[in-house]
Amino acid sequence: MTDDDQSALAWAASTEHPVAVAAVIRVRSGADAGLSAAELAVMQQVLTDLHDRARRGERVEVGCLGGHGRTGTALACLAVLTGTPAADALAWVRTNYCYKAVETEVQEALVSTFAS
What we know:
The chain has helices at residues 3-14, 37-55, 69-81, 86-96, 105-115; strands at 20-22, 60-62. The chain is mainly alpha-helical.
């Protein structure tokens, strides 16, 4: 995780601003694909906080530069937090948000890992 990622995640986890922006860690590709246990724990903390805020009626936003891969992954993980199975969460995001959401096998695996 880069210093920028750590700073963004620390801000997202601690902000009291009514609009909380999830800074989802860039999912790497290649032999070391995925997130470390520490990165996954931070992502779970941030998305759990966003989920809790949304349930309280606060406005939350999730986004990335392209709006497909990382955004879709975060949205699918949020659906998992509601009790939706990972495969159903992926299908729901692709149907209701964007058919391009969750672009890579690594991102799909992250949603499955998030569910466990």
